Each structure stands twice: as C-alpha cells, then as structure tokens.
Automatic annotation (TrEMBL), chain A:
InterPro entries listed in its UniProt record: Acetalactate_synth_ssu, Acetolactate_synth/TF_NikR_C, Acetolactate_synth_ssu_C, ACT-like_dom_sf, ACT_dom, AHAS_ACT, AHAS_small-like_ACT
Catalysis: reaction(s): 2 pyruvate + H(+) = (2S)-2-acetolactate + CO2
Known partners and oligomeric status: Dimer of large and small chains.
One Pfam short name: ACT_AHAS_ss
Name this protein carries in UniProt: Acetolactate synthase small subunit
Automatic annotation (TrEMBL), chain B:
Cofactor: Mg(2+); thiamine diphosphate
Origin species: Candidatus Brocadia sapporoensis
GO CC annotations, alphabetized: acetolactate synthase complex
Keyword Coiled coil belongs to the record: no
Protein name stated in the entry: Acetolactate synthase
EC numbers for this chain: 2.2.1.6
Length: 159, 558
C-alpha cells in the first residue's frame, strides 16, 4: 500500500542520510522525497512516499520516531490530507499540433513557461493522478524530458 | 574561562563522572591525550581498538554506568566498529569518541580519514560530528544523556583535531534540550490494569524477561511480581541474572539452547508476559508456532519493539521498573496447581544434563566447578559459540550484571576485553571469561593490557580444537562435512600466557579441573586455564534454526 509520511526534522547535516539509510536498510524503495525548510528555519519538513507491506511500514514509522533529529512522524495514510506534486515537462511539438497541446494544458490548468520552435515546457501542480493523466495525454506527441518534485502533503483542518 | 577543545572535552567527561576511558592514541587525538595526561581520568591503554570498545562495554554492563572509549581517526575508528555494533545490538550505554582529520580536510581522502559518522550510522543510537568548538560541551552532555536514557545504546562523537586545538570561552550546559527525544517512562495505567487482570485470570502463565530487567535495575521487582502472583519466569540470554535461577519459579533460559521445560511452558502458556525482551529469532524459533495459545503482554521501553516480530495483544510502553511497581499492586496469588505439576514433570523428565565421565573433561563440568568455587561472587563474561551456551546453561546466575555476553551481534572476541572492563568496574569480584580456543584468539592481544595493569581476570579456554558451534551445525545439518572448523596450529596457551607475563595452566584430566580453578582464583593477576575438553561435545537442547521451539533436539545425536 502507498504511504505518505510527513516528517518534521531538525535542519541539520546528516538527517537525510539517517532517514534514507533507515528506509533503504529495510528494503523499501522511496517513490518520492521532498525536503524544505518550514516557517521555522531550524526545522525542515520532509514528505516521503513509500509503498510496502503495512506491518513493515508500521515498523519503519516507529524506527523513524527513534531518530533523535526527527521531531514528529505522521503517516497520512489514515488521515484527511491534501497532497501536491510539481512537474516540469518538455514536450515535443509536431507541426500543426501546438494548438492541441495548449488545449490539453489549459484543461489541466497547467502553465506554459517556455516556448521554442520544436517544444514547450509545461508546469503543472496537482495530485499524482492528475500529473499522470496529463503525461499520458501528452505522451503521443513525444515527451523529451520530465522532472517532478515529489509529493508534499499537509493535513486538512486543525487538530 | 578560555579553554582548548581538548580541555573542554576532558572537563565535560569529568562532569559526567567518567572514571575510566578505554582506547589507543593516534595522530588525530594527540591534543586530547595531552589534556588527559594530567586529568584524574584513568586511561586504559588497550592493544587494539576493538578491545577498548568491548572493555568499555563490559564496564558498562557490570556497573550500569556509561562506558567510554577514545580512539584516533581512520583505522582507529574502523577498528572500533564491531564493538560499537555489539553495544548497539544489546542496548548498552556507551560514548565512543573518535578523532577526525581537520575540518577543512574532511572529504579530502586525507591521511587516516574515514567517514566515521557514515560507517557507524546504522549501529549507533545517535552520532555527532563536532565542527564548532562552541558545540562541544553541549554535545558531550547530550551524548551521555542519550546513551544512558530510554532504550540505552552507543553514541558516537567524531571530533576533528583542529576543534580540539582551538580555544573558546567554556559555557557549561545545564540542561539537555532535545525536542525529538522524549523517552516514555510511565506505563499507561489502563493498559497495566488490563495486563494485571489477564495475568490474574491466566491458568498457564509464563513470564519471559530479557536484558530490560537488568537495564532498568528491576530484578527485585520482578522477583516480587513472580512470588506475589505465583508466576514461573524464563529469561533470555541477555536476561540471565535478572531472576535467580535457584528459585523454584525459575525455568532457566528459553530459546534455541534454552531448557526443554522453558520452551514447553512457553509453547503451552495461555498468557505470556514479556518484559524488556524483544522476541528475537533465537527465542521464537518458528514464529507461527511460538506461544500459539497465549495472549501476549509486552512491556518495553522501545515502542518499535512492540509487535515487531510477534503480534502483541497488550502493549505497555515504558520503563520496566515503573511498570512492574504498578503491576505488582494489582497482581493476586493464584495457586495454579495443575500448571506447576505439568512444569515440574517437564523439569523431571528433561532436566539440563550431560553425560559426565571420568575419562574426559566435559565443558559443562568445568563450568559447574567455577560456579561452585566462586560461590556467587563471580562475573562471567563469554565469547560466542558453544562456550557461551554452556556458560549460560551450567552456571547458576542469581544476580543481575553477573553474566556479560554479546547476545545480539554474537561477537567472538568480546568476552576477554569485556572481562577487563568489568574487573576495573568491580575490583572485588572474580571475573571469569569463559572462552573457546577459537574466540580467545580474536582479542588475545589484550593479555598485555591485563598484565601491565595487573587486572586479575581469569580466562577459561574450553579447548576442543574446533570452531565448536560451527562444527556442531556441520555435524547435525551438513552431514558431518567439517569444512574449515579444525583449528590446526593453535598456540600453546600456557606458553602464550607466560610470554605475555601471565600465569598459564594446562588441564588434561578431570581430577585437575577443580584444583586448577582454585589455584587460579587465588592468584592476584591474569591467568589462562587451558582445559582440553571432549572435542565432540555438543550443546543441547537445541532447536534447529527455523523450527518451533518445542521441537528441540534433547540429547546427543551423534
């Protein structure tokens, strides 16, 4: 099962290595990982997406809780949360197809951030499925390059 | 006051009450050794960094205090790795200080550089690379706090040489602030009440305890609980000494080489109360058949230990001592006549035993003699393998911190340096390392340390000319194809002892066993006793790997 884990960590050297070491040491592949400072520059927020057996992930979650530099571990799997992923995509523009492509981008409420003779660079933010849906629609035109930040997530409402 | 980094470190160690530091100097720690030169801390110079680490570990296990070791960068640090991993697996409080190359050279493949933090990341509870002298005093305070609280473990401080030479105004930290580290000590009262009810209504309960009883200093509370509730107790290897084995409620050790009656009792139990133990694979055997009828209560300080391998019905997270004090209040005496009849009949039918003989020396006989002669005043350390299991089975442990053994990592070469550390911490005890002829050679160089400082540890070599436990597995599971287990070319241990300046005795006949041990115990210095034991003796009972624990091999198969 897919788990979105959010970690509040001390913004220190080596924290990321501890976390990835712990997860990879148990044989999990990290689907995505995003790190950035929070409103407090001494703290960072990491959002990690991993897939795996629930019992083993429960163990990983507990082990993460034991890392001294990790202040809080949240597994969003059983909670209400919103999730966004940012993608930059360079798509090939075959002759006469520019209009079609722009239409697709508009439907997804993406942005075109660079234009050249033969390609377009598109920016799109959203949940994973939305990003994948657009990628599938653009695939026939030829995707030259694709970059994603990985998911970031935040809980809904106040607790 | 303006001080150098070295002085700040040494003064911080003194504030932590450090009595001994174990290690070896080298280039990157020269300023530290200069500061140690006129400090009250006693530095124990070992002959290999692994020996220093195990000695610090043995000191910690024997005294309950934090063991401290100090080594240089690069090879000094990598030599320490096995000792750190050993302490980590057994949750032993340790602070390891490693020298590092100058800050600006880090990552430069400098002379004697190793990425010590990277190498030890998965075998330390926490680690620090101190790049700013202003962080040093606080780091030491945090390191000792982390090492010796919660589920204990080793903490590493990597210290670049330039930081130890810089100067700054010393600021003595008063409090530790670690927002990400809040160990839980008080157990949930509701869970404790439920646990008490379940235990009170149990018809066939078993208490299964581990190293947590010793770490939490609660063997008295455990005894009180067992007696008040009339509950049989079995311990893991790490838990030996946590419950008196001469008590009528003791089932001895369980697991792969545990007693038959402990394994039968756990298998038939309806309630299993686990305290400070982690359901390790050497205990559970085949998971599906482990305590299949039991409701499982698990008391542990580490939430990650709960339901890790065995699904737990009633978890209680917290310090064992706190929880036991509360639990005892609610426990009632229940007679459980049938259950004890059953246990007693297992004890009668399948006691721990061996075929004693007069023609050969049996290792079990040697251990029984040590136990009798030491009269409860001994600390036993072991190496790993057959020697360790016989020492666990045939010595009667009645007090905590008297059995020191590498349980989790299974480190051969642990016992002798650990004995040195234990003896320094407990000068009035008889400290005996029960070794095999294979393992003793893994850290034999520490004989120099013991002789030079006149540390009177006694080494018992159960010499069978084999890597015995591996030979046993090859005999039982690999059709007696003895591959690379015969130790041809063993040294003459008596001459070896003498070469180092220690006493050495060779014992080839059973009648000489007792007098030799008595003589060795009366010598005020290190002694090696080389007992030529029956080379074919095996450790039984034995649960084959992956098998259910009640399906054990009871006696000699060969």
């Amino acid at each position: 099962m897919r788990h979105v884990i959010s970690l509040l960590v001390e913004n220190k050297v080596g924290v990321l290595a501890r976390i990835t070491g712990l997860i990879s040491g148990r044989g999990f592949n990290i689907d995505s990982l995003a790190v950035g400072e929070t409103e407090n520059p001494a703290l960072s927020r990491m959002t990690i997406v991993v897939r795996g057996d629930d019992a083993i992930l429960e163990q990983v979650r507990k082990q993460l809780g034991k890392i001294i530099d990790i202040i809080k571990v949240i597994d969003f799997t059983d909670e209400e949360f919103v999730e966004r992923d940012l993608m930059l995509l360079k798509v090939n523009v075959p002759a006469g197809k520019r209009g079609e492509i722009i239409e697709i981008v508009e439907i997804f409420r993406g942005k075109i951030i660079d234009v050249s003779q033969k390609d377009l660079v598109i920016e799109l933010a959203g949940a994973e499925e939305k990003l994948e849906a657009m990628v599938n629609l653009l695939r026939p035109y030829g995707i030259k390059e694709l970059v994603r930040t990985g998911s970031i997530a935040i809980g809904r409402g106040t607790k | 006051m303006i001080k150098t980094g070295s002085q700040i470190l040494v003064d911080a160690l003194i504030r932590e009450g450090v009595e001994f530091v174990f290690g070896i100097p080298g280039g990157a720690v020269l300023p530290l050794f200069d500061a140690l030169f006129d400090s009250p801390i006693k530095f124990i110079l070992t002959r290999h960094e692994q020996g220093a680490g195990h000695a610090a570990d043995g000191y910690a296990r024997a005294t309950g205090r934090v063991g401290v070791c100090l080594v240089t960068s690069g090879p000094g640090a990598t030599n320490l790795v096995t000792a750190i991993a050993t302490a980590y697996m057994d949750s032993i409080p340790m602070v390891a200080i490693t020298g590092q190359v100058k800050t600006f050279l880090i990552g430069n493949d400098a002379f004697q550089e190793a990425d010590t933090i990277g190498i030890t990341r998965s075998i330390t509870k926490h680690s620090y690379l101190v790049k700013d002298i202003k962080d040093l005093a606080r780091t030491v305070k945090e390191a000792f706090y982390i090492a010796n609280t919660g589920r204990r473990g080793p903490v590493l401080i990597d210290l670049p040489v330039d930081v130890t030479m810089e100067k700054c105004e010393e600021v003595i930290p008063t409090e530790v602030e670690l927002p990400g580290y809040k160990p839980r000590y008080e157990g949930n009262i509701r869970q404790i009440n439920i646990a008490a009810e379940v235990v009170n209504s149990a018809k066939q309960p078993v208490v299964y305890t581990g190293g947590g009883i010793i770490a939490s200093e609660c063997s008295k509370a455990l005894l009180e609980l067992a007696e008040k509730g009339n509950l049989p107790v079995t311990t893991t290897l790490m838990g030996l000494g946590g419950f008196p084995e001469d008590h009528h409620l003791s089932l001895g050790m369980l697991g792969m080489h545990g007693t038959a009656y402990a394994n039968f009792a756990v298998t038939e139990s309806d309630v299993l109360l686990a305290i400070g133990a982690r359901f390790d694979d050497r205990i559970t055997g085949k998971i599906d058949e482990f305590a299949p009828h039991a409701k499982i209560i698990h008391i542990d300080i580490d939430p990650a230990s709960i339901s890790k391998s065995i699904k737990v019905d009633i978890p209680v997270v917290g310090d064992a001592n706190n929880i036991l004090q509360e639990l005892i209040k609610h426990i009632r005496f229940v007679e459980r006549k049938e259950w004890f009849q059953k246990i007693n009949s297992w004890k009668e039918k399948n006691p721990l035993s061996y075929n004693n003989a007069d023609s050969v020396i049996k290792p079990q006989y040697v251990i029984e003699q040590i136990c009798e002669i030491a009269k409860g005043n001994a600390i036993i350390t072991t190496e790993v393998g057959q020697n360790q299991m016989w020492a666990a089975q045939f010595f009667t442990y009645t007090k905590p911190r008297t059995f020191l053994s590498s349980g989790g990592l299974g480190t051969m070469g642990y016992g002798f340096p650990a004995a040195i550390g234990a003896q320094l911490g407990c000068p009035d005890k008889i400290v005996v390392d029960i070794a095999g002829d294979g393992s003793i050679q893994m850290n034999i160089q520490e004989l120099s340390t013991a002789v030079r400082l006149n540390i009177p540890v006694k080494i018992v070599v159960l010499n069978n000319g084999y890597l015995g436990m591996v030979r046993q597995w090859q005999e039982l599971f690999f059709s007696k194809r003895y591959s690379c287990v015969h130790l041809n070319g063993n040294p003459d241990f008596v001459k070896l002892a003498e070469a180092y300046g220690a006493a050495g005795f060779l014992v080839e006949e059973k009648k000489d066993v007792r007098p030799t041990i008595e003589k060795a115990f009366s010598i005020q210095g290190p002694v090696i006793m080389d007992f030529r034991i029956d080379p074919n003796e095996n450790v039984f009972p034995m649960v084959p790997a992956g098998q259910a624990i009640h399906r054990m091999m009871i006696g000699t198969m060969a």
